[in-house]
Design brief:
Blueprint: H1 15-22, H2 26-35, E1 43-44, E2 50-51, H3 54-69, H4 74-87
Antiparallel strand pairs: 1-2
Helix pairs in contact: 3-4
Length: 88
């Protein structure tokens, strides 16, 4: 896991902000972090709080859509993300 750099110019979101933006509950975000290690790797503050960049938030929204809307299992969503990553 990477540490948050104070000079990092990109927008970073707390887990509460990601919850508000995506509608994904905080415990689910923590669980998906373990299940989708390649796609969800939040940065950490010196106090070990999670910080999500925009790409990670986009990945969370994609995973949420695949699982909640399209009905993929977690394994199916992981495979679909691999296909999407290779094609795009």
């Amino acid at each position: 896991m990477a540490d948050v750099n104070a000079n990092n110019a990109s927008r970073l979101y707390s887990i509460s902000q990601v919850n508000a933006l995506t509608g994904v509950p905080k415990p689910t975000l923590r669980f998906w972090e373990k299940e989708f290690k390649e796609y969800i790797e939040p940065l950490r503050t010196p106090g070990n709080q999670r910080r999500y960049d925009q790409q990670t938030v986009d990945n969370i929204q994609t995973i949420n859509h695949l699982v909640k809307v399209e009905g993929y299992t977690l394994e199916g969503a992981r495979k679909k993300l691999e296909v999407l990553a290779r094609s795009g």
